[in-house]
Amino acid sequence: MKELDRYRLAFENLPDGAESAEANCKKLDIISVSVKDGEAGDSSAYTQFSVQVSVYANGSVGKAVTQDVEEDPNELIKRAMNCAAFSPGCKKPEKGPRLVRDAADDGADFDQLKALAVKLEKAALGRPGVKAVQGCSAERKLISYEVVSTQGPDLRFSDLEYSVSIGARIEINGAEDDCWCVSYADRLSDIDADAVADRLMKKAALNVCALPVMTPPTGEYDVVFGAEPASMIMVTSFMGCAGSYTALSAPVYPFHPETIIKYEKTVPETWADGKREPVLPESYPDGRWSVPVNKSGTAEIAADAVRVFIKPTNDGVGELIKTMKNGLYVTGSYDIIHSISRSTGEFAIFCDGIIVKDGKTAGRFERAIISGSMQQYMRNMARAADDLSLPGFMNPSYSYGSPSVLIKGLKVTGKA
Fold it and tell me: Are strands 327-334 and 346-357 parallel, antiparallel or unpaired?
């Protein structure tokens, strides 16, 4: 990034007392287009920039952050040194590994995003039962990181993500409700509007139904968590944990700019047993990795520089429900953020959803309590679906997510 050229120059003449310095730059370029009746509605294109300067001085590390592209690097260095004076002592940072990975940018622009959103809206309206499209959008997100350091070679990587979102009012067999579907891809050409519309209808077939409200069962049952609650479970387990242990009792991995160097070669063999012992793989193809979360390898966690998520498959949610045969399909949840213990990983989540008997929907339930632990959640994950959800939550530059997942043997308590 050209924004870091001034930091390179400043690092050549560090103030007295400063032994090493590093500038960690993050740049986020977003183009977002929404359409209504074939015309562009609320749309935006913007860039977010931030840089963090870390300085090792007098046996301590101090940091300073700015979002002002024009701020004087020497002023940031001084602020970081002042911070170091009040920071606890530590060892001098070691030289980091060299990493250069640039996203394969296909250069998609506003007009191409609009065309895809218009096509998706038309595809949805062409499906039987769709009363109206309530929202349709396409987004392009390019996230770039670059690290300039006096301690070793520069580090640079970027990731490109496209997403489309469609929401519609749908009627099925006399029942009517709203249904939403989101799809992600690394290239715009990989998003098929008709396939997304088909997924929307499959999701509606499960969620839009005139089922009676029933008392949820009590005991140990298999549970399919829908993509939205499952992704929020991932968000809650990981958010704010950079550089520390998560609810899974495992170290955070190379998805965050502040930990990419430190943890690039610290990936545990498995999360399933809560092991903290890292192993060092020989290489990281394309800078990405994934590890099985159970012995059968039917579900995986994948990660790159900006995302940690359960790896989706080609199976629809309906396939997970048929596999489960008897259990609960969770479509909504209450306050997951405060329902998972960050210290132990144990959870008790209030949920709404559908009761499944013999692989078929039998009735709706409300406010059942599903409990277990994140270690159990990962270890008993038997299958994942194709409907990956990646909520950016409070920070749009990185995200955690999951498709719908089948978890074996969780404790279910009747209506709260």
Answer: antiparallel
* Residue 202 CB-density burial (10 A; 0-12 exposed, 13-18 middle, 19+ buried): middle
Predicted structure pTM score: 0.73
Total residues belonging to the chain: 416
Both tokens of residue 65?
A: 């952050």
For the chain, the straight-line distance linking the first and the last C-alpha, in angstroms and rounded, comes to 54
Give me the amino acid identity at 282: E
Q: Are 348 and 369 within 8 A, CB to CB?
A: yes
DSSP calls for 201-264? HHHHHHHS--PPB-PPP-EEEEEEE-HHHHHHHHHHHHTT-TTSB-TTSSB--TTSTTTTTTTT
What is the C-alpha radius of gyration for the chain, rounded to an integer number of angstroms?
Answer: 24
Question: pLDDT, tens digit, for every residue of 353-400?
Answer: 999 999 888 899 988 999 998 778 877 888 889 888 887 544 444 567
- Structural domains of the chain, ranges and CATH numbers in brackets: 2-207 (3.30.2290.10), 219-413 (no CATH)
* Close Cβ partners of 209 (under 8 Å, ≥ 6 residues apart): 172, 173, 175, 354, 361
